[in-house]
Each structure stands twice: as C-alpha cells, then as structure tokens.
UniProtKB/TrEMBL annotation:
<feature type="transmembrane region" description="Helical">
    <location>
        <begin position="220"/>
        <end position="247"/>
    </location>
</feature>
<feature type="transmembrane region" description="Helical">
    <location>
        <begin position="153"/>
        <end position="171"/>
    </location>
</feature>
<dbReference type="InterPro" id="IPR035973">
    <property type="entry name" value="Cyt_c_oxidase_su3-like_sf"/>
</dbReference>
<keyword id="KW-1133">Transmembrane helix</keyword>
<protein>
    <recommendedName>
        <fullName>cytochrome-c oxidase</fullName>
        <ecNumber>7.1.1.9</ecNumber>
    </recommendedName>
</protein>
<feature type="domain" description="Heme-copper oxidase subunit III family profile">
    <location>
        <begin position="2"/>
        <end position="287"/>
    </location>
</feature>
<dbReference type="InterPro" id="IPR013833">
    <property type="entry name" value="Cyt_c_oxidase_su3_a-hlx"/>
</dbReference>
<feature type="transmembrane region" description="Helical">
    <location>
        <begin position="14"/>
        <end position="34"/>
    </location>
</feature>
<dbReference type="Pfam" id="PF00510">
    <property type="entry name" value="COX3"/>
</dbReference>
<feature type="transmembrane region" description="Helical">
    <location>
        <begin position="268"/>
        <end position="286"/>
    </location>
</feature>
<keyword id="KW-0472">Membrane</keyword>
<dbReference type="GO" id="GO:0019646">
    <property type="term" value="P:aerobic electron transport chain"/>
</dbReference>
<feature type="transmembrane region" description="Helical">
    <location>
        <begin position="183"/>
        <end position="200"/>
    </location>
</feature>
<keyword id="KW-1278">Translocase</keyword>
<feature type="transmembrane region" description="Helical">
    <location>
        <begin position="40"/>
        <end position="59"/>
    </location>
</feature>
<keyword id="KW-0812">Transmembrane</keyword>
<feature type="transmembrane region" description="Helical">
    <location>
        <begin position="80"/>
        <end position="103"/>
    </location>
</feature>
Length: 287
C-alpha cells in the first residue's frame, strides 16, 4: 500500500470498466433521446454494466477495509473524496435552483415588461407574469390545471426526511458507542423512512399527472418541478440503497466504534439529501 511516506494505491481494473460502462449507457441514452426505442437496449446494457461494476468495486473496497489494509493516508483520501463528491452535488443542485430563480425572478418579469429587458414583452403583449405559471405565454403550450398542495403530501415527505436524519444520527451515535443493537434498529427505521418517502413521491407524481395536469410538458413550471423533485428523488433512492448496504454490513459485524467511515460517508450523503429537500419544499412547493 505504501512505502515510507509515499502512498501507492492498490491496482484496480474497475475504474476503466466503470468508464466504459458509463460510456455505453450515455451512448444508449443519447440514441434513445434522438431516435426513440432503438437506443433503449444499449442504455439498459450500460446501466446493468454500471451496477455490476459498482457491486464488484464495492466488494473489493469492503474486503480491503476488513483486512485492515486502509492506513491513515487511505482514510484521509476517502474523506477528501467524499467531501469533494458532495461538493459536486451541491453545484449540481445549485444549477437547478439557479434555473428556477432565473425563470421566476428574471425571465417572467421581462416577458411582462419589467426590468432591463422588459422589451421582451413585445413577444406576448397580453402575458401577465405569475408563479406558479398556469398560463404560459405561448398558447400552444398548456400549463398545469392545478398545483400540488404543499401542506399535504409534500409536508408528509418533509416530516419523513427530517425524521430520517434524526434516526440516522441515533444509529450513528449507537455505532460510536458500541451499541450495535441500537444501530441496527434505528438504521432499519431510517431505511424504511427513505423507502416510504419514495413511495409517497411516486403517488404524488401519479396525482400530478392524472388529476392536476402537471406533467413535464406543462410549461416551464412543469419542467422545473419535475427536474428538481425528480433528480432529488433519484438521490433519495440511491441514498436508501446505500443505507441498506450499510445495514447489511452492520448485521454482518462490520465497522467498529473507531473505524466506520463507510457508515459515516453514507450519513454525510443522506444529511445532504435531506438538506436539499428543505430547499425544495420551500422554493418549489411553498413560495
């Protein structure tokens, strides 16, 4: 692993295999977007390949950890790597929140004649800016008939995610104190809360599409709504899978009070996803 003070990482074939699998999936996705179903098989093959590579790669990392091959240098690299990954996720969602801000606070007022670019109002002189935008300026685009009540399903999901951060913190505290039974119980509850959140959001999407006319094609409100909530939902699904994997490791006796960064990294990710949801709840549903 290391010689003197110079760190040499263990050789691994998974990065190149992961890059190839990702390339296949992206090629299939691009083909699907342009040419329709013809690209679906390639996209699915790439997705399965990515999941397979991830499974084997994680297996090797776990084996290295359990064999005691991770020294202080490796531990620091894991922490820096996870930190930069979460930072990249912050920038990812910042771009989407920025798009929402641009539309609501700049583009729509311009189209209504306000601001430095109010001349844009000449495009649709009868347009009146409002948010949620139920009546897009282009009459060929049909806006949503209604929007979701933030104090029903969205509030329920907020309670679920905030509660899951609390239960995960209790599980983490139990692991640090060697109380493994407490860790197992509260981590299981966290996984169930995450699963419930995804189920509630799935029902919310069903209601939006079938009863509210709120779809991806329902103007800028529909596209920003599903862009923000959909990508966040994907992150919740990924986080729930990660926490389930941590639960399986805890059940197998992995981790100790002193060495459990795999669990800690999963907790970092989950708390970040929860924090993003608070922003979504406020700026997408309430305000």
């Amino acid at each position: 692993m290391s010689g003197g003070s110079y760190y040499v990482p263990t050789s691994s074939k998974w990065p190149i295999f992961g890059s190839l699998a990702l390339g296949v999936m992206m090629a299939g996705t691009g083909t699907w977007l342009v040419h329709g179903p013809v690209g679906t098989p390639v996209m699915l093959i790439g997705l399965v390949a990515i999941l397979t590579v991830m499974g084997f790669w994680f297996r090797d990392v776990i084996r290295e950890s359990m064999a005691g091959r991770n020294d202080a240098q490796m531990d620091r690299s894991y922490r820096w790597g996870m930190g930069w990954f979460i930072f990249s996720e912050v920038m990812f969602f910042a771009a989407f929140f920025g798009a929402l801000f641009y539309v609501r606070n700049l583009a729509l007022p311009w189209l209504d004649g306000d601001g430095a670019k109010g001349v844009a109002a000449l495009l649709w002189p009868d347009f009146t800016a409002s948010w949620p935008l139920l009546n897009p300026p282009d009459t060929s685009i049909k806006g949503p008939e209604h929007v979701l009540d933030p104090w029903k399903l969205p509030l329920l999901n907020t309670v679920l995610l905030v509660s899951s951060s609390i239960t995960l913190t209790i599980a983490h505290d139990g692991l640090k104190k060697g109380a493994r039974a407490r860790t197992r119980l509260w981590l299981l509850i966290t996984v169930l809360l995450g699963t419930t959140f995804v189920s509630v959001q799935g029902y919310e999407y069903y209601e939006a599409y079938h009863h509210l006319g709120l779809t991806l094609q329902a103007g800028i409100y529909g596209s920003t709504f599903f862009m923000l909530t959909g990508f966040h939902g994907l992150h919740v699904i990924i986080g729930t899978i990660i926490l389930f994997a941590m639960l399986m490791r805890v059940l197998r006796g992995h981790f100790s009070a002193e060495h459990h960064f795999g669990f800690e990294a999963a907790a970092w990710y989950w708390h970040f996803v929860d924090a993003v949801w608070i922003g979504l709840f406020l700026f997408v549903y309430v305000l």
